[in-house]
Design a protein that fits this description.
With about 375 residues, this protein is of the alpha/beta class. The chain has 2 domains: about 1-250, 3-Layer(aba) Sandwich (Rossmann fold); about 275-375, Anticodon-binding domain of a subclass of class I aminoacyl-tRNA synthetases (Four Helix Bundle (Hemerythrin (Met), subunit A)). The protein has helices at about 15-35, 50-60, 65-80, 95-110, 135-145, 185-195, 220-235, 265-270, 275-285, 295-315, 325-335, 340-355, 360-375; strands spanning about 1-5, 40-45, 90, 110-115, 120, 160-165, 180, 210-215, 240-245, 250, 255, 295. The protein has a 5-stranded parallel β-sheet with strand order 3-2-1-8-9. The protein has a 4-stranded antiparallel β-sheet with strand order 4-5-6-7. α4 (about 95-110) crosses α6 (about 185-195) and α10 packs across α12.
Length: about 375
């Protein structure tokens, strides 16, 4: 199974929205590997993007040093939450030669045009897959980094493929001019090269889709994953991904959690406040991955109590039977990652243990919930 997950833009610390997304795909990674599936999991790092440059300029920091520091913080947070690392973390800067090669290829194939020094991708041939009507898509495109109002574009939804160099920003040499790639093509190329290999360039292959699963937060459905898929299809003539999965948004105070709104709950802040990483992980698991949700401290405090009860049960010599419990946890996870159901099953086992039931194996259930749920208790 070839899984690609869109990674962070490293200009700020990891918040709970990030954690919820990467926890979702950690569950898939764990389930597939435990089931004997040969997993290939790649995650990018968007270390070339406007938010990074803007913060570096605002704080008078070197953009590369800022990015490196935030990447390290992100990896530490993921490690604390026991989110298994991908087979490959690929920074855009490390894949630049591959990306340049791809954008030049797209230009040669007639999928691009130049406007005001920038190069745009022609989206027209791919609009039959548009998940919204054109007016709504244009509005979302504008809200999420697109430039539909730029005069001279062939189509308002055409995404920028190659950005001409700007003062105080890095640039690379290409046949399209000195500059840097746009956001969407970065993911198309990294996924194809690291999950498929150079054979994606062959015209003799007959496949339905290049990769098996493309994932990220639901805010990436459009335009990012739509554009990534279109660019991937232009490069290969095949569908980019066989399936897509998106985690819901995490909000605070009735709004999506984001840097611009100033309503972030940072993983590092919670850890420094004394919360156990497993309490945080449990709290995120207590709600279904696909649902938009609001974060409340009461959710975390409830998980603190539930985690303590599980640990207490696991400390006993005699525990309630575990065979059926393991089966029910697996059944819940197989049902679209029903983690609330899985945790409820564990709570019921804890109650049975507290009421004196015996016949189970502490080691068996402990190793099982660690392997499948990532809860090391």
């Amino acid at each position: 199974m070839r899984m690609y997950v869109c990674g962070i833009t490293p200009y700020d610390a990891t918040h709970l929205g990030h954690a919820a997304t990467y926890l979702t795909f950690d569950l898939i990674n764990r389930y597939q590997r435990a089931s004997g599936v040969d997993m290939k999991f790649v995650e990018n790092i968007t270390d070339i993007d406007d938010p990074l440059f803007e913060r570096a300029k605002r704080d008078n920091l070197d953009w590369a040093n800022l990015g490196a520091s935030q990447i390290e913080l992100f990896k530490n947070d993921m490690s604390a939450l026991r989110i298994l690392p991908p087979d490959d973390y690929v920074a855009v800067t490390d894949a630049m030669e591959l990306i340049v090669e791809a954008v030049e290829r797209l230009a040669e194939m007639g999928f691009t045009y130049e406007l005001n020094g920038d190069t745009y991708f022609k989206i027209w041939d791919f609009l039959s897959d548009l998940p919204f009507d054109l007016e709504e898509a244009t509005s979302i495109f504008a809200d999420r980094g697109g430039d539909p109002s730029t005069l001279g574009k062939e189509n308002a939804l055409d995404p920028i493929l190659w950005v001409s160099n700007k003062p105080d920003q890095p640039g690379w040499v290409s046949k399209l001019g000195f500059g840097r790639p746009g956001w969407h093509v970065e993911c198309s190329v990294i996924a194809l090269r690291y999950l498929v290999g150079t054979e994606y360039l062959s015209s003799e292959r007959e496949v339905v889709a290049e990769i098996d699963l493309q994932g990220g937060g639901s805010d990436l459905i459009f335009p990012h994953h739509f554009m990534t898929a279109a660019i991937g299809k232009a490069l290969t003539s095949n569908n980019f991904a066989a399936a897509y999965l998106h985690s819901g948004m995490v909000g605070l105070g009735g709004e999506k959690m984001s840097k611009s709104k100033g309503n972030l709950v940072l993983v590092s802040t919670l850890l420094n406040s004394g919360f156990d990483p497993m309490e945080i992980r449990h709290a995120l698991l207590s709600q279904h991955y696909a649902e938009d949700r609001m974060w409340f401290e009461s959710t975390l405090l409830t998980s603190r109590v539930r985690v303590a009860a599980i640990r207490s049960a696991l400390s006993r010599i005699q525990v309630a039977p575990t065979d059926l419990v393991l089966h029910e946890i697996l059944k819940a996870l197989a049902n679209d990652l029903d983690t609330p159901g899985a945790l409820e099953t564990i709570d019921n086992w804890v109650s049975a243990t507290e009421n004196g039931a015996v016949g189970g194996s502490v080691g068996e259930i402990s190793r099982f919930i660690d392997s499948f749920l990532g809860l090391a208790l």
